Amino acid sequence: MRIAIFGTGGAGGRFGAQLASAGEDVVFIARGEHLRAMQTRGLRLETPEDDILIHPAEASDDPAQVGKVDLVVLGVKTWQVKEAARAMKPMIGQETFVLPLQNGIEAAAQLMEILGAERVVGGLCATLSWIEAPGHIRSIGRVHFVRFGELENAPSKRTKELRKTFQRAGVDVEISSDINAALWEKFLFVVSFGGVGAVTRSPIGATRTLPETRQMLESCMHEIYAVARGHQISLSDGVIEKTMDLVDTLDPSGTASLQRDIVDGRPSELEAWNGAVVRAGKEVGVATPLHEFIYHSLMPQELRARQQVKFPS
């Protein structure tokens, strides 16, 4: 299988390196120093168990030069999805399909709008991985998985073949019986965790311990649950309790990428996380006051990071 990893950050780099190490025909789409390092020194994946070096690594910033592939694994940030969809068109052949791994609920629809519904499956992943240095992905922890499925939840040959491909690479992989519910369940976790952490500037150990902020976490989850039900998404009745159990297992110093980006003054996924909850709630007449508060409170810093608003010096 010819596979393009479009966006070789933490998730794309981690799973792409595993696929390439297992002998799959993988090309990495990247840019800048990260790209140049891969082209000269290869791609290194550092984990607690092992180091994987893909050298030579096929890497490019030009999808037209890459040509047609069988699969595109999309690892860019949520706000880059539409731009990536347009850029990857030269790689899309008759049978090519795209697997998005973004945290959120809108990526698949954005891809379908540009590439067509038949080109897209639903997908998500979990991994604690990041770019340690150009050409170097560092990955920690024990939970690293990929889940995907047809958006209509029908079995398909291509998802079965993709599962086999990931299995050969040693990736924890599963075809979800309801990929839309799986996407919303992860969304319920990351958006609540990230939003409360970002607005309080506190690690999860503090927010889950203090009664006031623990209630905020649970209230965020209840709002997302209600919005999902409004959109006819069948979340399990115990999903909030199960998610809070997960929260209680996290490293006390843990923070979400949304919080880290906002604190560091970088563009974040606020629009695709808390902003998406607000928009999706309005579509079905479900109030989301806590997510509105978080979204509106963080908006000035988000716009400043995007150079759309200037703060007085």
Cα radius of gyration in angstroms: 19 Å
Order of helices and strands: EHEHEEEHEHEHEEHEHHHHHHH
Shape, principal axes of CA atoms: globular
- Main beta-sheet annotation: 5 strands, parallel
Low-confidence stretches: none
Output the structural class: alpha/beta
Give the N-to-C terminal Cα separation: 54 Å
Number of helices: 13
Written account of the structure:
The chain has 313 residues and is of the alpha/beta class. The protein folds into two domains: 2-177, 3-Layer(aba) Sandwich (Rossmann fold); 181-305, Orthogonal Bundle (N-(1-d-carboxylethyl)-l-norvaline Dehydrogenase, domain 2), CATH 1.10.1040.10. It is built from 13 helices and ten strands. The chain has helices at 10-21, 32-41, 63-66, 81-87, 107-115, 157-168, 179-200, 204-207, 211-230, 239-247, 257-263, 274-284, 289-305; strands spanning 2-6, 25-29, 43-46, 51-54, 59-60, 69-74, 92-100, 122-133, 136-149, 172-175. The strands form two sheets. The chain has a five-stranded parallel β-sheet with strand order 5-2-1-6-7. Strands 3, 4, 8, 9 and 10 form a five-stranded mixed β-sheet that branches. A hairpin with a 4-residue loop joins strand 3 (43-46) and strand 4 (51-54). Helix 4 (81-87) runs parallel beside helix 5. The chain is globular, with a radius of gyration of 19 Å. The mean pLDDT is 96.
Topology overview:
Blueprint: E1 2-6, H1 10-21, E2 25-29, H2 32-41, E3 43-46, E4 51-54, E5 59-60, H3 63-66, E6 69-74, H4 81-87, E7 92-100, H5 107-115, E8 122-133, E9 136-149, H6 157-168, E10 172-175, H7 179-200, H8 204-207, H9 211-230, H10 239-247, H11 257-263, H12 274-284, H13 289-305
Parallel strand pairs: 1-2, 1-6, 2-5, 3-9, 6-7, 9-10
Antiparallel strand pairs: 3-4, 8-9
Helix pairs in contact: 4-5, 7-9, 7-10, 7-11, 7-13, 9-12, 12-13
